[in-house]
């Protein structure tokens, strides 16, 4: 589909070509007595006029202006310039008179600019400039001025067209994303009002009845959690293929990663994940280490609060930091228990959680009241003290498995 910005330029070029072809013929008619070989001049202009009128339908858009067609168009302009001395003799062309195609030549150059951008425009205008200098035999100030004017104007228009095309593609992509988002929101409302309500009811009734119904309720709860995660966060993106050797594209370990996508694998019937509706992007290493720390905290919940304990993960995206809290409904941690665990060599909290956050320049605070559960609050800065992305250090991935106190 034609661009809203580009299409008016093609229409203007169509009118320009028709008017300048008539103008070139009018100049020749007025100066017919000064031509040394008028048959050459009027023969060329007849071809030019017929070609212009016959090809007007092609200039409705870039699709029909193929590369061979534009090459013939520019070739016709060059032929007219080089035939001028033959038709004019040593008369007007030596005194900076107009060439046979006159300003029609600019239309051929501008067509290249609209079709191929500033590079095509530069090549076409360079050929026209060289032909003008060749037919004059010398670089007079007036000739240089005209050549430079066409060259600059063509390149500028070609660059504007390239920018317009890029903007059009960006806008089209944004509209696609907006339409997809609206459709997803509509589906989410329908699913929330129907399917999720039924799954939640099955989970409650199955748990209350017990027996085989309890297992059915558990499965319904897991499906509810997975479906809720899908409609709120979207599908987890597939791994990107490796870039070809020598490619300048960013590597996977250089791209920001969405923390919500990494934490999504922990959400199930017993773990509720809540966060912003938009991606929470962190430096790749920071995102992975934060997710590993959350995994270690959830391991502690399963180990010390029981496999059926509920946990809640809340993600808050602030301008300069990301806050992640992990709260459970377990029995809490007795006073002094963490110190005893560290002395016994069980460093789940000290290393898997606090150690990771310390390496990222953040903090991990643990609040626990016996009988009222435990809450772990992780603070991850988005930048270090020098204004660079935080978490440039590396840790052994094997530490991600540490999850006991």
From TrEMBL:
Keyword terms: Kinase, Membrane, Transferase, Transmembrane, Transmembrane helix, Two-component regulatory system
Keyword set includes DNA damage: no
Biased composition regions of type Basic and acidic residues, renumbered to the chain: 382-397
DUF5931 domain ranges (all copies): 1-172
Entry GO MF terms: phosphorelay sensor kinase activity; protein dimerization activity
Region (Disordered), start-end ranges: 232-254, 372-405
Transmembrane regions listed in the UniProt entry: 12-31, 37-56, 68-87, 107-131, 143-161
PANTHER family tied to this protein: NITRATE/NITRITE SENSOR PROTEIN NARX-RELATED (PTHR24421), OXYGEN SENSOR HISTIDINE KINASE NREB (PTHR24421:SF61)
Protein name: Two-component system sensor histidine kinase
